[in-house]
Amino acid sequence: MKDVENFIKNHELVQPNDTVLLAVSGGPDSLALLHYFFQLKDKYDLTLVVASVDHSLRGEGSKQDLDYVRSLAKERGLPFYGTTVDVPSFKEETGMGTQEAARTLRYRFFAEVMKEVEADKLAFGHHGDDQTETMLMQFTRSALPEAVHGMPVKRSFASGCIIRPFLCLEKEDLVRYCTAHQLQPRHDPSNEETDYTRNAFRKKILPFLKASNPKIHQHMQRMSERFSEDRNFIEQKAEEVLQDIKMEGGKGGFTQFSKTVFQKQPLALQRSAFHLILNYLYGNQIEEISYLHEEMFFHLLDEQKPNASLDFPRGLKVVRAYDDIMFTFNFKKEASVLFKSLYIGEQVSLPDGSTLSLTVGEDSWEQGTHEYVCDSHHVSLPLIVRNRKPGDRMILRGMNGSKKVKDIFIDQKIPAQLRDTWPLVTDQDGQVLWLVGLKKGEGCTRNPSGTWLRLQYKK
Question: Model-level pTM?
Answer without folding.
Answer: 0.64
